[in-house]
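ok trying this again, last paste got cut off
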Amino acid sequence: MKKPSIVFILSDDQGAWAMNCAGTPELYTPNLNRIAERGVMLESFFCASPVCSPARASLLTGKMPSAHGVLDWLRGGNVDSERFRRQGEENPYAGGDRGETKPIPYLKEQRCYTDILKEAGYRLSLSGKWHLGDSVTPQHGFDDWYTIGMGGCCYYHPDIVDHGEITVRHGEYVTELITDRALRDLDELAAGPEPFYLAVHYTAPHSPWDAKNHPARWIDYYDGCSFPSIPDVPDHPDITTGPVFGTPKRHENLRGYFAAVSAMDEQIGRILDALEEKGLAEETIVIFSADNGMNMGQHGIWGKGNGTFPMNMYDTSVKVPFLISCPARLPQGVRCDALVSAYDLYPTILELTGLSEQFPEGLPGRSFAGSLSGGGAEDREVVVFDEYGPVRMIRDREWKLIVRYPYGGNEFYHLTEDPGENRNLYGAPEYEEKIIAMRRRMEAWFVSYSDPYIAASAQGVTGSGQLCRPGIYADRLEPYAPLSENS
């Protein structure tokens, strides 16, 4: 039997709540709804770290940040700024505080599931955001490579990497550019005999959210919306992104964010239509997810894990959407409430492609393919672990513990009684034994699955960006940007 092809669509900074089918009725996402209706929606899928680069690295490697070494968003190591200056190209990387000097392939020593797919005869193509170091060089099995230079860009002035060159595309909407290339790649991939893996990594709905960065038709669509599904609460006391509550900024932010999601959804519809036109819609596995969650006013935060300092682990920061469809292989219109983590994706993709025997030893993930097929939770242990620098989390269906090393500010929530995480029970005497037991379990888990030389809890991660490889691999004295440079 021929191995199934995969279209993996990844968004940027999209909370699990940010889809119409997830319970936000004012958000127009008919094509995300379309994937959900034709497949399975996981309602409790968690990223491994609530910020982009570590979360993306964990999806590909099946490891926690403390094992793969990408511990914060990558502020440095994306491009060789001097090379592009010498070439006379427009150079958005020189100067300023971006930290760009030389490219660093952060995942060089890692074995990603895309490497395994390549070895098994797949043709791999990337269109969209990479943000895992050395953006110019194709890596980890990808044959075709079309990305952006760094982690983000202005939507109408993106820096596009194509065949080893970077060009700023003025006046062209990056969401459409990514889709255009993905469709071109799909034409070529579908014409070949090999199964394919097409990665479509949008920058949406990451900021900026001002009106000039998104199509006028979508800005106008949401201009009169009051966004009733989104909490309108005072700013969190630890917010890092500046005041929002009580200003017109709330409406501007939400209008732009919703516009970015709907504009992306429109482009996803083009991909789904192309699969149908080519007769590939039934047999191709289509996956939609996001790198990390996002607060757009929830808890008074406008951002993800580093939307506050100390960094936060609210469910709105760590829970992401996950939709998967393949009508020939999976049931349709199913909602699954199993607790699933990003490090479970690696073994799941290998199982779905018949490559489970290639799953590397020593990784924490377990395939959730059986749950997708209606086989229940496969006796899965419903515990999720997360980390962001010195902040670690353990969560099951009922309880959630957040520990901040070394400065404290720990949190403990009874989720079945307090799903909104509004009442911190840490320090209450009646929960002391439960907290101790969960903390011991969490620390034992991280001992098992972390590299002690690069463990994030011992690094100087502030949420302001990573400049080079960590720990014993660091090639500079300060591998992390100080808190004052948070952006």
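PB: full thing came through this time. Residues 249-277 form the longest helix (29 residues).
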